[in-house]
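Hi Y.,

Following your request, here is the sequence exactly as I used it, all 372 residues.
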Amino acid sequence: MTLSTERTQSPPPGRQPAKPSSGGSASAPGPVRRNAPGLALAVVGLGLAEGVHALLPAVPMLTAAVVLGVVAAHVPGLHPFVRGRGRAGLSTAGKRLMRGGIVLLGLKLSIGDVLGLGWATVTMVLGVVLATFFGTWWLGRKLGLPGDQPLLIATGYSICGASAISAVSGALGKDEDDEQLASDVATSVALVTLCGTLAIAVLPLLHHPLGLDNLQFGRWVGAGVHDVGQVVATAQTAGPNALAEAVMVKLIRVAMLAPLVAGVAVAYRRRRAHDAAGGKQATGVRRPAVVPLFVVGFLAMTALRSTGVLPTGVLDAADTAQQLLLAMALFGLGSAVHLPSLARSGARTALLGLASWVVVAGVSYGGVLLTT
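Below is the corresponding structure, written out as tokens. Let me know if you'd prefer a different format.
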């Protein structure tokens, strides 16, 4: 009765009935309007991060971007905007822009350069990745960390920091607006970034006490430090040869990103299939691809770099674009950190970070001694 009554009511003169599916200006520009405020704030965060790095060169731009994102989420005047109108765009930055940065990361890697280091070094790096990943994941679960934090932290420590965390989070097949996943990603990025930044100050102090020559120190840094920028900042203290060695070893770890993401995707597909067979409902999640599209892009860029056809200018421009995309993405991820929630699991999270840091440093040190 009510429906039929409402149907017979005519709209006021000059007004057309609302049509949810064809709302002219509301449908097409909807995503743009929804994302623009948050993306604009991410651009501002990028500019501030560049300014911090220019004033304090010892602070990597990506680290500054994460910290500024966290600050933005807790400044009283800005907090409502970050949690409200800006949330959609900041989430888009944390997901979409990060994936674009990961694709461009493939241009840093050449198959020939990796093979040139020898199979002993490749095997050593593989051992470091596996020991760090499974050791951190197991300990995180034992400590009872919530959500996907054990998996994400393990990925960040074992591969390449924030980029790897974002890559694996994208392979889980969860909804784009999953707030728990966003919080887990942000917390993991903050922890890995903190420990990687500490490595810049701590590892050079251990260079000579551990009896490492410059090349060995470079390999140790490349195998044990998380982010590429942090590797560069740490290894350059021992000279250009150590820096070159560190970057090449680090890029072997980066090469492990694609098989790790594919492995996580396959494991989660199997788990969902098992849950479905047991009568559990997997609502609100999408089935992850075996190899996510951005990982395919990463591999394609690596193959393109390996051909040698790209001039130095193009590679330099791609490197700059990658840094800008990652900085905006990390600002977006940092803005999702909720410090009160982080504080509730702070001690356990910090313990896992410290333990994982010791594991990756110790295993990579032993690996360097065995292969040099």
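Residues 1-29, 281-285 have pLDDT under 50 and may be disordered.

Thanks again,
Q.
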